[in-house]
Amino acid sequence: MTNPAQFISQVRAEAAKIIWPARREVMTTTLMVFVMAGLFSLFFFVVDLLIRSGVSTVLRTVG
């Protein structure tokens, strides 16, 4: 078990190892997340539309 001073020292040593991404990298990955979210939402919209149409057709035929 380490004492609080050693703990703080270890935390600072670990924090010094952190490599922060560049602004361009952050902007690029953020844009990629938004584009992928848009594509997935479009995909699920189309799938939902197809399933809804199929179920409606089956219910109209049966009922």
Please summarize the sheet with the most strands. none
Helix content: over 70%
Helix and strand pattern: HH
Beta-strand share of residues = under 5%
What does the radius of gyration come to? 26 Å
**Could you tell me the number of beta strands?**
0
Choose one word for the global shape. Answer: elongated
Q: Treating each run of at least 4 consecutive H or I residues as one helix, how many helices?
A: 2
> Kindly, what is the distance between the CA atoms of the first and last residues, rounded to a whole number of angstroms?
72 Å
Average residue pLDDT:
95
Family: Belongs to the SecE/SEC61-gamma family.
Keywords: Cell membrane, Membrane, Protein transport, Translocation, Transmembrane, Transmembrane helix, Transport
Subcellular location: Cell membrane; Membrane
Protein name: Protein translocase subunit SecE
